[in-house]
Task: structure prediction
Amino acid sequence: MSQNIIKELTEIVGDKGILTGNDVSQRMDGWIGAPACKAIAIIRPASTEELSAVMKLCHQHDQSVTTHGGLTGLVGGGITRSTDIVVSLERMRNISHVDTQNRTLTTEAGVTLQAVQEAADDNGLFYPVDLGARGSATIGGNIATNAGGNRVLRYGMTRESILGLEAVLADGTIISSMSGVIKNNTGYNLPHLFIGSEGTLGIVTRAVLRLRPKLQGEATALVAVEKFEHLSRLLNMAEASLGGSLSSFEVMWDNFYSLVTGFERHSAPLPVGSPFYVIIETQGNSNELEQERLENVLGEALDLQLITDAVVTQSVSEREKVWAIRDDIEALFSLAPLHAFDISLPVTVMEEYLTTLQTELDQKWPDNRCIVFGHLGDGNLHIIIGQVSAEEKKQVEEIVYRNVHPYGGSISAEHGIGYEKKPYLQYSRSKEEIALMKLIKQAIDPKNLLNPGKMFD
Ligand SMILES: Cc1cc2nc3c(=O)[nH]c(=O)nc-3n(C[C@H](O)[C@H](O)[C@H](O)COP(=O)(O)OP(=O)(O)OC[C@H]3O[C@@H](n4cnc5c(N)ncnc54)[C@H](O)[C@@H]3O)c2cc1C
Result:
């Protein structure tokens, strides 16, 4: 049967639109460390209509499909089986329109996040979603995972930047909800159904993105903080004093800061030894104004002893050096074998959660290295547990995720569930919620063809 379907698929997408054999197995199913692609073929449609015809055929043949964007997802959402075909959006990379009056950008889903940011910038506007994998991650992937990143505090997750969307369903139906208006209360919000659905409900082909005015000024500071309780007071003070212009509040625990600044490629702007370090960034109309406002906040925080030390960057290169510390994920590989987590918790219980976690880890693996950093303004922690063998992955995961539940947190803040977190979904979602999710999946994709085995069984 698979040979028949390949012939028919080739007739739809042409020779350029299909890869088989070594061209498939030499590709990966995800980011660094992901397994090789096992699929029968990779289909690369050039348009929504081609994809619709592909899905109609797959539906007829009960053929399962996994969608690949930029393959930077971190929860195994792109993993394939030998019976799947892959749909890759790599030939759908056209930004069709930037509307400077209505501040919207219309794009195909295979366009990278960075290309969208640059197109907005070229037109004097700003696309606020930003994350380290911007050069490879696609808009389709961002939408499918509802990606977060560094500016959620001010602009929200990807969901908040999507005005309209087009998707192809498992049976080939094209759902085109490409409205460019912010207010559109006309029944169920269909674009939102696909945002964060991780390719299980439809394949996103196009979107209308909301752009923002480009801000001309920013100011960045790195501060040292002595006590955890001071972090949330400092955040509240910064939000109140800087109004809507606070754009980042990124916390690094001492173990993260000292590890990363220990590498020669960085110099430490503040001495190591403080329990916490925070990058605070504000964006507004002029550098001078933002700097003055930020310095006022820091002065007040020093008076109240909420911070013990601070450095405000004075140039673009100083700012980049501070962010390079926060973004140096590669430095963490020095702790291999390691396990990485992305969870969220109410700020009020974070410290207690981390103490419980460390106690349980120490009991089992006395030599473990538990490194913490994150988007504290969004309640989002990234936890790296190093020097614990790969074979013990399940046990580490169980400790991290089981403890999230009683504190009212989420086992996935921004990366999704995919394949990796599927066994733990019940720690963040009730039986009734999971049943409703399955009902929605059953209604839209009754043959379970789209990304089967991801999110839930
Ligand atoms: C260095 C690094 C930093 C990162 N930082 C962040 C961060 O700060 N915040 C954050 O949220 N994430 C982050 N990520 C994770 C990742 O970049 C995001 O999840 C991103 O949105 C994935 O986009 P992608 O195009 O690579 O999708 P892929 O990895 O290709 O796919 C991810 C999932 O979406 C599905 N999918 C892809 N395209 C489509 C489509 N067109 N239609 C339907 N389903 C689709 C796939 O089937 C899969 O389930 C980071 C990753 C790396 C490697």
The mean pLDDT is 96. Residues 31, 66-74, 77-78, 89, 109, 131-133, 137-138, 140-142, 144-145, 147-149, 198-199, 203-204, 329, 414-415, 418, 451, 454 surround flavin-adenine dinucleotide (CB under 6 Å). The first helix runs from residue 2 to 13.
